[in-house]
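Hmm, how's this folded?
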Amino acid sequence: MNTAVKRATVYFDPAMHQALRHKSFETSRSLSDLVNEAVRQSLAEDADDLAAFAERVHEPLVSYETILKELKADGRL
């Protein structure tokens, strides 16, 4: 085992755990690999979202009511 790896206890819903075990078997990958990949993807999505927010920080704010009025005026609602 890689010494840079950290251990953690994670509690899964029984059905989720069973699904992970089946996927682990079918893909010949460990549960740790599957969970690490899922967490990595989730964190990457968060990073993408934060980058998008940072790019749009100077855009004007538009209220929900204004958007609804525009959609109705354009016949999309």
In short: The mean pLDDT is 94. The CA atoms of residues 36 and 42 lie 10 Å apart. Helices lie at 14-27, 31-55, 64-73.
